[in-house]
């Protein structure tokens, strides 16, 4: 009889909404720090997760944009927050695997954060303003060589993925495009559309609407191989070997967060990312959902940190 009643109780508990199953956490609103300006891929993913968890938990998960210092500003805010599970970071891989190699960070990427889950993979692409007479990578390289220092490329800041990929292209192709840093991808794209910069390597979700409208010309993908969603789009590396940028996004908290909170948030984020409407929404913008365990995310950081360190040293890439 006791076993029967226990089975019924467990069944009823499983049927409860997420926020009713565990009243201990979250007991108050969560602040979700996004270290870029609104509108970029980090911001898009964070807002989708925040909306769904707010609905399911009955507690607000509020996105707070804190751009600056190549995403280090927002990341540092999270690193120095209380480890109570109420301050999160939606971080791109550059915070953890490239920023420490190109400039001093105000935090230790291996000691000051608790990895929660990888959440997405974001294809980066190479685009140019229509005024640039190039329709592929080979033509862009030829034009840049014939017009040294004439092309300006934008980025979301020194040490950002946009700068690193563009400087890799400069180094590998033997060209001299000039760097113009911005406080986020959105203002960079605004100047790109206005022709004040001519070249940009950025997240496809931010660029796709302008590509479709003919305001920007799509040249190539920036990943290590062609994207499954765009099989006819060549990768930069097919013309200029060695130029490849694969970008992932993950959720982090300060070091020392209780393990039960980590497990709870990891499981609930994974559940959100499997929802059909979430997958359809993000895939329609070129973003692939990719949840992981905290351990897998930590291993990815370790591997990418070593790989990117080697690339940055060999290409002599600096954050200026």
What is the strand and helix layout of this fold?
Layout (H helix, E strand, L loop, with lengths): L1 H14 L2 H4 L8 E5 L6 H17 L3 E5 L6 H8 L7 E6 H5 L1 H4 L10 E10 L1 E5 L8 H10 L5 E4 L5 H13 L4 E4 L3 H9 L5 E5 H9 L4 E5 L25 E8 L4 H15 L2 H8 L4 E2 L4 H22 L5
Parallel strand pairs: 1-2, 1-3, 6-7, 6-8
Antiparallel strand pairs: 3-10, 4-10, 4-11, 5-8, 5-9
Structure characterization notes:
The longest helix is centred in the C-terminal third of the chain and has 22 residues, at 294-315. This protein has helices at residues 2-15, 18-21, 41-57, 72-79, 93-97, 99-102, 137-146, 161-173, 185-193, 204-212, 259-273, 276-283, 294-315, and strands at residues 30-34, 61-65, 87-92, 113-122, 124-128, 152-155, 178-181, 199-203, 217-221, 247-254, 288-289. The chain is 43% helix and 18% strand. The model is unreliable at 1-22 (pLDDT under 50). The protein has a six-stranded mixed sheet, with helices on both faces. Strands 7-6-8-5-9 form a five-stranded mixed sheet, sandwiched between helices.
Quickly describe the structure:
The protein has helices spanning 2-15, 18-21, 41-57, 72-79, 93-97, 99-102, 137-146, 161-173, 185-193, 204-212, 259-273, 276-283, 294-315; strands spanning 30-34, 61-65, 87-92, 113-122, 124-128, 152-155, 178-181, 199-203, 217-221, 247-254, 288-289. It has 320 residues and is of the alpha/beta class. The protein has a six-stranded mixed beta sheet, with helices on both faces. A five-stranded mixed beta sheet has the order 7-6-8-5-9, sandwiched between helices.
């Amino acid at each position: 009889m006791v076993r029967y009643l226990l089975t019924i109780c467990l069944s009823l508990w499983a049927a409860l909404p997420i926020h009713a199953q565990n009243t201990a956490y979250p007991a108050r609103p969560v602040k979700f720090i996004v270290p870029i300006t609104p509108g970029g891929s980090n911001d898009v993913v964070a807002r989708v997760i925040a909306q769904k968890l707010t609905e399911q938990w009955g507690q607000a998960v509020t996105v707070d944009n804190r751009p600056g210092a190549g995403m280090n500003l927002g990341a540092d805010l999270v690193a120095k927050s209380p480890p109570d599970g109420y301050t999160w970071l939606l971080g791109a891989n550059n915070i953890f695997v490239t920023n420490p190699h190109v400039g001093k960070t105000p935090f230790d990427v291996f000691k000051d954060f608790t990895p929660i889950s990888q959440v997405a993979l974001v294809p980066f692409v190479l685009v140019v303003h229509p005024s640039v007479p190039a329709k592929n990578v080979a033509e862009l390289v030829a034009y840049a060589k014939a017009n040294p220092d004439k092309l300006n490329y934008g980025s979301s800041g020194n040490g950002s993925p946009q700068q690193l990929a563009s400087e890799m292209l400069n180094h590998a192709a033997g060209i001299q495009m000039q760097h113009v840093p911005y406080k986020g991808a959105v203002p960079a794209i605004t100047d790109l559309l206005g022709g004040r910069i001519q070249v940009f390597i950025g997240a496809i979700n931010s660029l796709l609407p302008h590509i479709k409208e003919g305001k920007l010309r799509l040249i190539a993908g920036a990943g290590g191989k062609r994207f499954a969603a765009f099989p006819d789009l060549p990768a930069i590396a097919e013309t200029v070997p060695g130029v490849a940028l694969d970008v992932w996004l993950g959720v982090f908290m300060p070091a020392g967060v209780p393990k039960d909170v980590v497990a709870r948030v990891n499981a609930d984020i994974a559940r959100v990312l499997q929802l059909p409407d979430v997958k359809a929404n993000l895939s329609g913008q070129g973003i692939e959902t990719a949840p992981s365990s905290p351990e897998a995310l930590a291993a990815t950081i370790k591997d990418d940190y070593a790989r990117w360190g080697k690339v940055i040293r060999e290409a002599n890439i600096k954050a200026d």
